[in-house]
Design goal:
Blueprint: H1 2-26, E1 31-36, H2 40-49, E2 58-63, H3 71-79, E3 84-89, H4 100-118, E4 125-129, H5 135-152
Parallel strand pairs: 1-2, 1-3, 3-4
Helix pairs in contact: 2-5
Amino acid sequence: MKQNAERKTQDAERNAQDAGRRTQDAFEPKIVAFLCNWCSYAGADLAGTSRKQYAPNIRIIKVPCTGRLDPIVLIKSFEMGADGILVSGCHPGDCHYRSGNYLARRRWMIFNEMLQFIGLEQDRVQFSWVSAAEGGKFVDVVNKITEDIKKLGPAKEYNAS
């Protein structure tokens, strides 16, 4: 009788592990991408018009400049169910607003520390530089962040207090 109970416990544990693996394999992340209007969005457009394939997990939000992106908007994205975030702008020195991408880069450094403080993995938010002529690079960036977020699994609630 004791062996039956142990066997049932082992079977239940094995089933729970299998179910966990299945949900991890079936997990498709929700990724929000904030793209600079002038460069990265145009790079995404080039990828689309060139019929390049990339992961469909990304939802694009066009912003005038990544330097104007408030970090609170990124946090709100997680609150609304995002598993990962991509922020992509002009290459340094090529910003249409002169220094917007430098400001974004400085904010990015501080935001990384804030992510750690609230209990989210830093790899859930990635920053890249993609120009209007780099449709192939945009595809690579999107596929990379999708794979990275799949490895991390669904985003957990963070410590808001």
